[in-house]
């Protein structure tokens, strides 16, 4: 880290402490040449995650879209907002651990359906009916039969 006063490239850390609820670290440094002190901040670099839509267009990942979709699926169901928040956090963690910069919207939808199936089967079927574009009652029944067969 270069000293802002003399441009010397060597400094030592005198004090470190977390700031902004732990999302960054404030460091007090002392230049080894001129002995002046200065402050630096260390933050995790945000990596922009791009979502590849069905039509091939790309857009930035938007967590609120996942939350809104899950809330709609869980309407009038006994699923608390805390449970929904945890589902979204879990989905984000899975995506972040995959270390990809781009992800298909289809993969995100599949992750949402996996989580919904664990939490509430009715919400899962609601989400799946919109996500998979059920064309008629037979497609809907096939999905219900899958759930019933998994339970047996």
From TrEMBL:
Pfam families: ATP-cone, Zn_ribbon_NrdR. Keywords: ATP-binding, DNA-binding, Metal-binding, Nucleotide-binding, Repressor, Transcription, Transcription regulation, Zinc, Zinc-finger. InterPro entries: ATP-cone_dom (IPR005144), NrdR-like_N (IPR055173), RNR_NrdR-like (IPR003796). GO terms for molecular function: ATP binding; DNA binding; zinc ion binding. A zinc finger (unnamed) spans 3-34. One of its GO terms (biological process) is negative regulation of DNA-templated transcription. Its cofactor is Zn(2+). Residues 49-139 form the ATP-cone domain. Binds 1 zinc ion. The keyword Iron does not apply. Transmembrane segments: none annotated. This is Transcriptional repressor NrdR. It comes from Tepidibacter thalassicus DSM 15285. The lineage of its organism: Bacteria, Bacillati, Bacillota, Clostridia, Peptostreptococcales. The gene is nrdR.
């Amino acid at each position: 880290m270069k000293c802002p006063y003399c441009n010397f490239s060597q400094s030592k850390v005198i004090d470190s402490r977390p700031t902004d609820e732990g999302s960054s670290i404030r460091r007090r440094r002392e230049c080894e040449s001129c002995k002046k002190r200065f402050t630096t901040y260390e933050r995790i670099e945000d990596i922009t995650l791009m979502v590849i839509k069905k039509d091939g267009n790309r857009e930035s990942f938007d967590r609120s879209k996942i939350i809104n979709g899950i809330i709609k699926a869980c309407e009038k169901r006994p699923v608390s907002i805390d449970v929904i928040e945890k589902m979204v956090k879990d989905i984000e963690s899975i995506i972040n651990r995959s270390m990809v910069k781009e992800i298909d919207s289809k993969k995100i939808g599949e992750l949402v359906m996996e989580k919904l199936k664990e939490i509430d089967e009715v919400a899962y079927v609601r989400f799946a009916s919109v996500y998979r574009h059920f064309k008629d009652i037979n497609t809907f029944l096939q999905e219900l039969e899958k759930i019933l067969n998994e339970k047996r």
